[in-house]
Amino acid sequence: MAPDLVQRLNTLAKALIPALLTAFLVVFVVVPLRAPEVAPLVPALGVVAVYYWSVFRPDLMPAWLIFLLGLFQDLLTAAPLGTGLLALVAIYFLVASQRRIFVNASFLLLWVVFALFAALALTLAWLAGSLLVGSWGDARLLLLQYALTVGVYPCLAWLFGRTQQLLL
Amino acid sequence: MIQFPEDVLPKRSGTVARLTSPVRALVQRFGFLLLIAATIATLALGKADTLLVERARIMVVDSMAPVVALLSEPVQGVEQAMTGLRELAEVRQINESLRAENERLMAWHHKARQLEAENTRLRQLLNLPPDPGARYVSARVIGDNSGAFARSVLVAAGTEDGTAEGHVALSGEGLAGRVVEAGERAARVMLITDISSRIPVSVGLTGERAVMAGDNSAQPRVLYLPPGHQVAPGDRVVTSGHGGVFPPDIPVGVVAAVSEQSVRLRPYVDWTRLDYLRLVDYDLPGLIAPLTDGQAAADE
C-alpha cells in the first residue's frame, strides 16, 4: 500500500508542475526589474506558459486551472479584473480549436503560431481593459509588451521543454 | 528538444485519451462554455463590485508579499552590481560633483538649523502649538504593477507596521503616490502617474491652483489652470492641500512643457530608482468624511 501511495503522490506532484511553473511566472511579472532603459514592462509570461502547456500537455492545463491562474494574475497585478484572464482564455481557446496545426509542428511553426495567437489574445485583453477603464490604454505599451512576449518565447519554450523531459 | 505529447504521455492519460471522442468533445465543449461564462462574469464583477475585488486583491497581495520580496532580492542584487559597474567608470567625476553638492548642502543645512531655531523661538513667543507630528514608515518596494492600464507598486509594509489606506508615499525627491490598499504585510501604492490619480496642486511662485492628472505616461498633465495663467516651464509644483488627501507644500515636480492644449509636469521622483518609499501618516482627521465623498464622486 505504501509504495502505491508514494507513486500516486509522485504522479500528482508531476501533474502539478505546469500549474506551479505558470503561477511562478505570473508572480515573477510583478517583481520590479527597474531597468526602464531596457524594458519598462515585462512580457506576458502567463500567456507563454499557457500556450506551451496547452499545446504539449493539455491534460495538465485544464479549463478550471486557466481560470484560477488568470484570476490570480489579475488580482496580483493592478490590471482591470478579468483582462489578463481573458488573454489566457483566448490562448487556450485558440490552441484547442486549431489542434491539428500542432501535430508534428516544428519549433519555428510553433513560434509563428504563438506570435499570431499572442497578438489576438493581447489585443483582446487590451480592448477589454480600455472598455472597462473608459479610456484607451497606451497602444505603444501594448506593442512593446507583445514584442517582448514573442521575443521571450524561445527561452521559455526551451525551459519548459527541459522541464518536460526531466520531470514529466 | 520539443517532443510531441504522444511521446511523453504517461499511461494514466493514455487511458483517458482512449475514451470515445464524442463524449470527450462534449465534456470539452461544456468546459469551454463554462470557462467563457466565468471569464465574462469576472469582467463584470470587476466593474460592479469594487469592494469585494479590493478585498480579494489585498488578500492575494498579502499572501504573495513574502514570495515577491524573496524574488525581488536577487533582481535587486544584480541591478545594484550593474549600477556599481557603470558608476565605477565615472567615479572620479561623481566624487567631484558630490563634493560640490555637499558644500552647497552644508550651507543649506546651517541655514535650516538657524531657521528652525528661529521658528521655535517665534512660535514660543506666539504661543502656537507645534505642528502635528507625522508618523512614517519606510518600506522597500517589492513589486511593480505597471502595465498598459495602471501605475502602482507594492511595498513591504502593511497594517502590522502602521500603514493604512490614504497614507502618503514619498521618495527622497518628492511625492510618489498614495496607499490605496493595505494588507497586513504589504500595501499597494498608486503612483501619481496612474490614470486615475488626481491631485490638487499649486503651480509656480504665484501658486496657481490646478489639478495634476496622471495618464499613465511619465509626465502627468496639469488641468484646470485659470485662464490667462502665467505658468512657464521650470515652475515648481507642490501639493496645495485642497481636498485633504495630501498636506500642502509637498514637492511634486516642475512644469516640463506648456502648450495651447496642455501643461505637462516632470515629477521629481526618479522612477528608475524607486527602491524605498516613506509612507507618511499626516493624520488629517477633520477631513476624512468630505474626503471619502470626494473620492466616491471622483470614481464615478
UniProtKB/TrEMBL annotation, chain A:
Transmembrane segments: 12-31, 38-55, 75-95, 107-129, 141-161
A family per Pfam: MreD
Membrane topology: Multi-pass membrane protein
Signal peptide (residue range): none
Keyword entries, A-Z: Cell membrane, Cell shape, Membrane, Transmembrane, Transmembrane helix
Protein localization: Cell membrane
InterPro entries cross-referenced by the UniProt entry: Cell_shape_determining_MreD
The keyword Nucleotide-binding is assigned to this record: no
Entry similarity comment: Belongs to the MreD family.
Protein name: Rod shape-determining protein MreD
Source lineage: Bacteria, Pseudomonadati, Pseudomonadota, Alphaproteobacteria, Rhodospirillales
GN (gene name): mreD
